[in-house]
């Protein structure tokens, strides 16, 4: 299992500069496939929007809701006023109270994006530390493996567990993902307590510097 590195990267990006660019319902409506981007994916109750807001040090860049599953489009954000540097908020999955047909449509667009988007440098996959590795989490990892796309897992809401159980969950995830050790790294993360930001930044900086 790759360990998140804390070493300096060629350039530390200013994630506070993230601004909304566009929302796209399908791959065809996405911005031009140039430059480099990092995508965020996860179950609708995994704290994806909260993590994006914590990483960009903004309160409402990504919409949060008491009703999980509200993100139904592929949302793009630019960094440093440069449309060639982007963060991407992908539709949540597995929890939203929507018709099954709509869930399948979201999943089809998600798969299309992950397989075909050439500017995608890496995937941040968010999982609740108390409920990691759902069936669809595994499907996403398999999709990433198909195109040798690096994945960094944030085990979110780590503040909900004491230190011992949180570390135990981290070790269990590492052990279960040993087969993907060349592409996958994992860490504990808490948006509420702002824990794990530097580790995540280190990975993201490296991907954006490709």
From TrEMBL:
Belongs to the TRAFAC class TrmE-Era-EngA-EngB-Septin-like GTPase superfamily. EngB GTPase family. Keywords: Cell cycle, Cell division, GTP-binding, Magnesium, Metal-binding, Nucleotide-binding, Septation. Necessary for normal cell division and for the maintenance of normal septation. Residues 34-210 form the EngB-type G domain. This is Probable GTP-binding protein EngB. The keyword Amino-acid biosynthesis does not apply. One of its GO terms (molecular function) is metal ion binding. InterPro entries: G_ENGB_dom (IPR030393), GTP-bd (IPR006073), GTP-bd_ribosome_bio_YsxC (IPR019987), P-loop_NTPase (IPR027417). Pfam families: MMR_HSR1 (PF01926). The lineage of its organism: Bacteria, Pseudomonadati, Pseudomonadota, Gammaproteobacteria, Oceanospirillales. One of its GO terms (biological process) is division septum assembly. The gene is engB. One of its GO terms (cellular component) is cytosol. Its cofactor is Mg(2+). It comes from the Bacteria.
